[in-house]
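Sequence design from tokenized structure. All designs in this work follow the same two-part layout: the structure record, then the generated sequence. An example of the structure record is given first.
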């Protein structure tokens, strides 16, 4: 076999490399999820019981019919995960496998979505690096393997961002993006802090660049408002200490304590806690520790993310960045802004990790190209 034949064979094999990486990533997220992690976290058990109760009786354990927010321990638990688990419980019975499958499958679905976005903005070679960075990321593997309600928030934010990035060429996707972002509010409460920053900045960019018409923006705003109304109204009523009520057949429960008081409080120290978390990649909670690897493979992984971020900012200042990439940058900046309002731990700040992994993949790609170039010229 001559060099031409070898080169052709390698190119053919490279076509299947994304699929191989996705398959490996899926295996890391799905294999043995009923036994690893062992047992059930208390919030997993709570979500599972309420999912089973609503599935077979229409009410959660607090007696609320089709609640938009689970009463759970009294301060509430977001309900979207439990609703997503119901089909699996109906098929497989109530157990660790059926309860954890929604997180695992959404984690797997994130891989091709992440790859396609990177391929559209940076090409397939760089997209391989970003795909690998996500597929083998300790935080994302950990997130995909247990049934915590907050663990599905990154997927819905990623889905909304993916649709938003494509709406410049296909404006009809903008209402779908709005629907995905509105569903994120049902996934985890910190979305109420992150999304105002992200959506305001994103709308400002789209209006300034005239990416989509005002008609699509207004339609999307209406879609968002319609889907978000029940959970938003529920939170407002609880802040005002109003009694339980119903809306369109859904229950807006009265909690003993608001979700916001449990997880949110404005303080500059929250931001510095986030910086400490990113540097140490450990929030001190055993269930948030991916086996000593850190959320991003410790300091070296963080440094690659900073390299990728710096390279993007350099291209942005030189007006050489693709316009779709701005939404990833907005997501990162919005996460930093939101951190001032959130009592920081890994779960509550999980919206920041996908943008960092995006830039980590870009940093790995840039470093790899520079190393290869140096080897050739040496």
């Amino acid at each position: 076999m001559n060099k031409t034949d070898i080169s052709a064979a390698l190119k053919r094999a490279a076509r299947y490399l994304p699929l191989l990486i996705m398959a490996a990533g899926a295996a890391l997220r799905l294999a043995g999820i009923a036994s690893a992690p062992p047992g059930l976290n208390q919030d997993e058990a709570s979500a599972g019981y309420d999912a089973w109760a609503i599935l077979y009786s229409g009410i959660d354990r607090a007696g609320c019919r089709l609640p938009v927010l689970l009463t759970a321990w009294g301060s509430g638990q977001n309900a979207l995960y439990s609703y997503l688990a119901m089909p699996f419980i109906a098929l497989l019975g109530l157990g660790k496998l059926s309860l954890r499958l929604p997180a695992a499958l959404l984690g797997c679905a994130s891989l091709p979505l992440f790859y396609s976005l990177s391929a559209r903005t940076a090409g397939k070679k760089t997209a391989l690096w970003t795909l690998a960075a996500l597929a083998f990321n300790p935080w994302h593997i950990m997130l995909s393997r247990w049934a915590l309600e907050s663990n599905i928030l990154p997927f819905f934010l990623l889905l909304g961002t993916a649709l938003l990035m494509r709406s410049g060429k296909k404006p009809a996707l903008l209402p779908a993006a709005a629907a995905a972002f509105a569903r994120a509010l049902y996934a985890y409460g910190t979305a109420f802090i992150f999304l105002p920053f992200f959506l305001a900045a994103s709308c400002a960019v789209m209006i300034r660049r005239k990416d989509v018409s005002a008609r699509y923006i207004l339609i999307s705003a209406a879609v968002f408002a319609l889907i978000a109304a029940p959970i938003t109204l529920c939170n407002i009523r609880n802040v005002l200490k109003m009694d339980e009520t119903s809306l369109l057949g859904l229950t807006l429960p009265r909690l003993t304590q608001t979700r916001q008081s449990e997880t949110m409080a404005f303080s500059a120290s929250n931001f510095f806690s986030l910086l400490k978390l990113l540097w140490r990649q450990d929030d001190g909670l055993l269930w948030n520790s991916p086996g000593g690897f850190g959320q991003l493979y410790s300091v070296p992984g963080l440094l690659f993310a900073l390299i990728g971020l710096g390279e993007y900012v350099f291209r942005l200042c030189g007006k050489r960045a693709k316009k779709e990439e701005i939404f990833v940058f907005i997501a990162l900046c919005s996460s930093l802004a939101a951190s001032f309002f959130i009592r920081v731990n890994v779960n509550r700040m999980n919206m920041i990790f996908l943008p960092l992994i995006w830039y980590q993949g870009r940093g790995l790609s840039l470093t790899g190209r520079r190393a290869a170039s140096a080897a050739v010229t040496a």
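Residues 96-122 form the longest helix (27 residues). We note this feature because it recurs in several other targets discussed in the main text.
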